[in-house]
Specification:
Layout (H helix, E strand, L loop, with lengths): L1 E6 L2 E2 L5 E7 L5 E10 L7 E7 L2 E9 L25 H17 L6 E2 L3 E2 L7 E9 L2 E5 L19 H15 L7 E9 L2 E7 L9 H12 L4 E6 L2 E5 L5 E3 L2 E3 L11 H13 L7 E5 L7 H5 L3 E6 L2 H13 L6 E5 L9 H4 L4 E4 L7 H8 L5 E6 L2 H13 L3 E9 L8 E7 L3
Parallel strand pairs: 7-22, 8-22, 12-13, 17-18, 17-20, 18-19, 20-21
Antiparallel strand pairs: 1-3, 1-5, 2-3, 3-4, 5-6, 9-10, 9-11, 11-12, 13-14, 15-16, 21-23, 22-23
Helix pairs in contact: 1-9, 8-9
Length: about 425
């Protein structure tokens, strides 16, 4: 490694500071052979670093940015969960908004991007953690920032406080399992009425014997606020069903199933969808519906068709629909929209379509929507690059892009959600 002084010019898409010139004695700047990325730095800062190729390790900050603030987590820079706790909120919000602006610009789209909507610290209701069984005990937390070892969490300001307070209890549950090899995955959900825990990869092919299962169930019954425990798909303990409020429904998700990480962010997205629903609309379609984050709010006003490839999610949605009151009719369709998107003809009956695909986007479905006559299309995405690609398809098909709303669901990370509204001109 080579030690040198750099001036950080801007933040990259992953939140690292970017430098292209090295400072020589006397203040002269010399171009570097390649762009250097320096984590935990800010534009305008003069820093001392150790450079190894395109990556650098921060040694000291010689001249700090006025936007630099003190991080709030003791694990910051060690844990890989957060990368931007050191930047002031206004600058952080503008940087995330700029990520969306730039993604659209690269597709030659001039987008009207709103200021960032922030869910804030402590809003994340879902944690996906790694667990190791070591000689010293159970290690439970996120992967480190610079390698694959697991940081044993003692605090986490982004998570719902109920999850943080449960970590010692979850370690005790993991310790009650027969010792396993490798890394297990632990999903903890802070539902409206308590905690839901799903552990995967901690039990071999032989599974738990009846005695071990009974002992684990007894330990689970002692955990304050624990509603359900599932280990490798096997129910171990259930005091009550975990419930999530979505529109006028109460949804019981399958153990470890995909959910929006923050209830506040989910509501912000749903609010955009409801706001653009045409006044005379009668039917809407929710593509990649999951358990119904947009379906149920829409069903308070119009009939909805929910489409997804996840049978467990559709089952949870269907069960919630049956116990909800005051909603318009909801139908479900099990379908892989990557392989078999809804056709133009199938889309004809709908006044609004919303799609919220995985990070890969919804290219095939966007192409079908671009050929359709659906008056309003709302695209929700966790990846600005694929959102902009799908937006280009819709625009080329005759839609006009309206407001784009960036939403900060994963606080202090480089991830940003966005909701884009498209209208078909009459």
């Amino acid at each position: 490694m080579t030690t040198m002084e750099l001036v950080i010019e801007r933040l990259g898409a992953q939140g690292d500071g970017i430098a292209t010139r090295m400072l020589e004695p006397g203040g002269h700047a010399e171009a570097l052979p390649e762009t250097v990325y320096v984590p935990y730095t800010l534009p305008g800062e003069r820093v001392c670093v150790q450079v190894d190729g395109a990556r650098a390790q921060l040694q000291s900050i010689i001249t700090p940015s006025p936007e630099r603030i003190a991080p709030v987590c003791p694990h910051f820079t060690d844990c890989g969960g957060c990368s931007l706790q050191h930047i002031a909120p206004d600058a952080y919000g503008e940087w995330k908004r700029a990520l969306v602006v730039e993604a659209f610009r690269q597709r030659a789209i001039e987008a009207d991007v709103a200021p960032l909507t922030m869910a804030g610290a402590g809003a994340r209701r879902r944690a996906m953690l790694s667990a190791l069984a070591t000689k010293a005990g159970i290690v439970l937390g996120y992967h480190a920032a610079r390698d694959d070892h697991v940081i044993d969490l003692s605090a986490c300001p982004v998570l719902d406080q109920r999850i943080v307070e449960s970590l010692s209890d979850v370690r005790r549950l993991l310790g009650a399992l027969p010792r396993w090899e490798g890394e297990a995955r632990v999903a903890i959900l802070a539902a409206e009425n308590g905690l839901d825990v799903a552990i995967d990869g901690a039990v071999g092919k032989s599974g738990l014997d009846p005695n071990a299962s009974a002992e684990l169930g007894t330990e689970a019954s002692r955990v304050n606020g624990l509603l359900r425990l599932v280990v490798d798909g096997i129910p171990i303990f259930q005091m009550a069903k975990p419930a999530l409020a979505m529109g006028g429904a109460s949804v019981v998700p399958a153990p470890g199933s995909f959910l929006q990480a923050s209830a506040a962010a989910e509501k912000a997205m749903a609010d955009v969808v409801l706001k653009v629903l045409p006044k005379k609309a009668k039917r809407a379609i929710d593509l990649f519906s999951g358990v119904g984050a947009f379906c149920f709010p829409l069903a308070s006003r119009v009939a909805v068709a929910a489409v997804d490839s996840d049978e467990h999610a559709l089952s949870a949605l269907d069960a919630a629909m049956r116990t909800a009151h005051g909603l318009k009719p909801i139908t479900t369709l099990h379908r892989d929209l990557f392989r078999e998107p809804l056709s133009r003809k199938e889309l004809e009956p709908f006044d609004l379509a919303v799609f919220d695909p995985p990070r890969a986007g919804a290219k095939a479905q966007a192409e079908m929507l671009a050929k359709s006559k659906v008056p309003v299309v709302v695209a929700v995405s966790c990846n600005p690059a694929t959102l902009a690609r799908d937006a280009r398809i819709l625009i080329d098909g005759g839609y006009r892009l309206g407001k784009v709303t960036p939403i900060d669901q994963f606080h202090w990370s480089a991830h940003v959600e966005a909701v884009a509204v498209f209208r078909r001109p009459k």
